Amino acid sequence: MKRILVPCDFSRPAVNAFKLALDIANRANGTIHLLHVIDSSPSEDRRAKATKEMASMVSSNRDGHESIAVTAAIVFGTPIKTILDYIETQTIDLVVMGSRGASGLKEVFVGSNAEKIVRSSPAPVLVVKDTFKGPIRNIAFPNTLDTENQGDLIREVKAMQQFFNAHLHLVWINTPLKFNSDVVTYDRLNTFDKRFDLTNFSVHIFNYDNEEEGIVQSAKRMRADIIALGTHGRRGISHLLNGSIAEDLVNHADSLIWTYTIKDKNEETVSAY
Fold first, then answer.
1. Is pLDDT larger for residue 153 or for residue 106?
2. How confident is the model at residue 241 (pLDDT cuts 50, 70, 90)?
3. For position 147, which CATH number holds?
4. Lowest-confidence region among 143-147, 253-257, 264-268
């Protein structure tokens, strides 16, 4: 978490993301990249206005973190593509992104910017909505419990757990369409634990009508500070037909959401949340 990107539109969620990024950078001895994308024809007036807003936001919200290096970039272009290109070219370790979410027809036809970044980012994404006053002590980790193709995801989750010195809650959500007995599920949980050598963790089984509701409600019951999810990064027709629980949570949940896109050995995304 040395190089942290905060996409910035100067909204309240973006300010909340910047404040959390400062806390993380302070803990990691890292740096912050603020990126504002202007989706219109180049204009020096627009750039000057954005530069002024950026400087004001930084100076008003550093909260004693003046020693942390903050790089501000203002770019003209398409927001999603520009952000994703910046992640690649600047070798970003973590994206901390504010979101207002999306619902109804807007979610179906447009979706939130955070949802699109979650779907495509090569780096982990931490989505923030409200002001978060840490520390992060409990991480809810809903999982499909498949032991293939999850090595990178587990490495990232364990690194985050160690970074925050947090307790990991490994969660299985039983639904009517994906139901297993407790005996079978606990056996899978134990196999998963041994396969990935988890520490400082507990296992949980919850029963809900659907996975999204189960993840949200179980996280509340465990008083989790953050929900960590692997996502499949589907696009196009496949995404419309299958959806993504991680993206749904980015749109609907109020808590911190951390996501990482899982890829198989052939560099194609695989099924997860």
1. 153
2. very low
3. 3.40.50.620
4. 264-268
Instruction: Confirm whether 220 is domain-assigned.
Output: yes
pLDDT tier for residue 6 given thresholds of 50, 70 and 90 = very high
Domain extent at residue 62: 3-128
Domain boundary among 62, 94, 128: 128
Judgement on whether residues 168 and 85 belong to the same structural domain of the protein = no
How far, in Å, CA of 49 to CA of 92, rounded?
26
Asked whether residue 235 carries a pLDDT value surpassing 60, the answer given is no
User: Is there a single domain that holds both residue 113 and residue 149?
Assistant: no
pTM: 0.88
